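A quick aside before the break. I want you to see a complete sequence-to-structure record at least once, exactly as it would be stored in a machine-readable document. Don't worry about memorizing anything.
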Amino acid sequence: MIFHKLISDNIKRIRKEKGITQLDLALTIGHKSMSTIGKIEAGLENKHYNVEQLYKIAKALEVDISEFFL
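That is the input. The structure line, written in tokens, reads:
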């Protein structure tokens, strides 16, 4: 569970640092609403994200996926 919290916190931090809204991020990775991003950032959506999803988020945020694990 700590692992998922680390990923969630880093996605949220990076998104905010870049001034990207949850909705903009969601639309960029192919979702129609921001609820998925909100759940990921809250640590509630860990059962639905996988490596492919993390790569999409990393690409949309213009960071290497390793940034989510630091």
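Two observations worth writing down. The domain at 2-64 is CATH 1.10.260.40 (434 Repressor (Amino-terminal Domain)). The CA atoms of residues 59 and 68 lie 12 Å apart. We'll return to this after the break.
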